Amino acid sequence: MTMTVFLGVAALAHAANTNETDAAQRAYAAVDPFIGTGGEGHTFPGAVVPFGMVQLSPDTQLKSRKEGYGWAAGYRYDDNTIFGFSHTHFSGTGHSDLGDVLTMPISGAVRLEPGDSAHPGSGYHSQFSHSDEKAEPGYYAVTLTDYDIRAELTAGDRIGVHRYTFPQGKPAHVLVDLRPSMYDYPGKVSWSRLRLRADGTLTGFRETRGWAPDRQLYFAMRFSQPASGHALHNIEGEIPYKGFAGPADKDPRQRAQVEGRAIVGVVDFPATTRELIVKVSISPVSEDSAIANLDSDMPGWDFDVVRSAARDAWMRALGAFDVDAPAPMRKSFYTAVYHTMMAPSLFMDADGRYRGPDNAVHHADGFRNYSTFSLWDTYRALHPLLTIVQPEQRTNDIVNSLLASRRYSPNGILPVWAFHGLETWCMIGYHAVPVIADAFMKGIRGYDTNAALDAMVASASYAPYGGLDGYMKLGYVPIDQEGEAASKTLEYAFDDWTIAQVATVLGKQDIAKAFDKRAGNWRNAYDAKTGFMRARKTDGLFREPFDPSASGYGSDYTEGNAWQYSWYVPQDTAGLIKAHGGDTKLVAMLDRVFDAKIDPKLFAHMEDITGLIGWYAHGNEPSHHVAYLYAYAGQPWRTQERLKQIMDTQYAPRTDGLAGNDDLGQMSAWFVFTAMGFYPVAPASNEYVIGRPFVDRMTLNLPNGKHFTISTDGLDATHPYIGAVTLNGKPLLRSVILHEQIMAGGKLHFSMQAQPNKSWATGNSQRPYSMSTL
């Protein structure tokens, strides 16, 4: 190669890298962490790195689980009071827990109780103004007006870092409250401990009896300057220390350690203190491990170095997408991408140790261990998205983590809904199975594939779980033995289909045949007389009386009703169409779903059913694939119409811009896929069903170094329909794009028009995959 050619190649490479860096900076600037913190989104605005173990964020209310559904993430935008900054949170869940190691800076007098937000000054909480808040990926700041303290937060994988700027002339304090829990506050702490070590490090632990029982978490906290005093309190029955006259070792001002169920500590600093850095690490293993994590993840005291590292981590993650779209769409899109990278979250010390579902300590050999698996939600779109943008970096570790969890599970099955290593048994299905199957079918196989198949089969064969005994014997879950039986039958059948796909590739024909048959069990729930999926009794008869609008506990369905669940056959939509009597009849039923006029009060008893368009409930996952089903019936232009209807009404770049709980990124992953123009209706099929694009142009900067560009012409409000699609310059005649086509790099181009194209992708051979044919 001549020097001239070499310099030319180098210049092109430099230009490409510069462009990607610029795109990453623009992506970072577009994120608004406040989106979803109002309404029903249940997101938080605090500091976290991609998939980090620490999620450091303000808590604006301390409420019990029974009254605190809206505060599942600890924060709601319509509040004006902060009770402190805790180090663990869920992003967008419909259930609450965590809120560990609540830390509050205080100037002046110290109160040990949090108080009531309705009564300023009644406790250690402080008022704040949104005009003083700032949030960006990896950073949060706010002024605590009652104390005139500026609080800044940033984070690393296992650390949270606080920078407090105190007013002059008042004693400075840092309060640590181990009582609050977002599951039930107070009363769910089994035991806790605070210990002030000789070098000034504050360590502790607590065990909570919350959503995941007997959860243990340890921490270590250091301060950038020596303390001038301290007090460690056990609030239960303790004599107020101002009048303390007992032994010195019992004096809260003197003792170095305290244990109990109601522990609060206060560390004091001189009135001359202006800036104080507080760094906190957490560990699932021990206080000593938390100290080791602190030493490993932040040996120094430079807050801005940690903030810059968090920014760089987010720029790399967000830089997978280079989007050209109007500013509101860019904000919504990149914030959605941001929310898809909160979970699963790292759950492992710097030395590789973690706590498993048996509550024992294990070591992750050759992988990074993750937990926080909201699998009923995230198998649908979040995990398929990660197979595109983080296949090797993250997805292999996620699969290895699922398999490790199964190894140490007392029941020998994969996680259902797990966090901090522990199982909650929340929701239905065995949806770790499609997560593994989807990765496997896409060639992501950095794990023992035979062990993976064994784990999948074991989870699908564990008779005591969720009516599986009856399902395996009868081909459906009997409602007189197990609640929500129709939903369970349908979801088990899909999971079974994904097992069959993996077994076929691995040459396990007996397993493939058995689970392919089980994948057809959805037919046992279909009632041809009503056109709905219903629950049968052990005697084979459908349960009566039947009301398709009925939902909730005691019904045939999980977080939905017959109108929402009767379309859940992603592995065999062609079979569903045939059962209904053809394309026209299925389309008519889908139209009845979207066009129905219903009273939203019908779902007042179901917190999760939100984002209603007729019966369609975008705020909950069973509806997420429904708009794409028109494409299976040969009417992709109807999918295009419905997607615009959903995007226009269910998402917005506002604090209340999510129609329902983000559910650890699933709502956001739906948005990301749909904005690109396609969606994974059936994970493990390696197909993405084409909807329509919502961005002018986008480049996926793939981890394999290739680039996949999505472009449009004529995209505006007056041109909502696809006229034609090309892939690498050639007409794309099917309403799908394959995973391998994306990962190979290339160009997908949409020509948009004002009127629907009723001839594109309508033929049977041009439709998405189904296990049976029309």
Automatic annotation (TrEMBL):
Pfam families on file: Glyco_hydro_92, Glyco_hydro_92N
GO MF term list: carbohydrate binding; peptide-N4-(N-acetyl-beta-glucosaminyl)asparagine amidase activity
Glycosyl hydrolase family domain ranges (all copies): 290-753
Leader sequence segment: 1-15
Keywords, alphabetical: Hydrolase, Signal
InterPro entries recorded: 6-hairpin_glycosidase_sf, GH-type_carb-bd, GH92_a_mannosidase_put, GH92_N, Glyco_hydro_92, PNGase
Keyword DNA repair included in the entry's annotation: no
Residues of the Glycosyl hydrolase family 92 N-terminal domain: 31-283
Superkingdom, taxonomy of origin: Bacteria
GO (cellular component) term, any one: cytosol
GO biological process entries: carbohydrate metabolic process; glycoprotein catabolic process
The protein, known as: Glycoside hydrolase family 92 protein
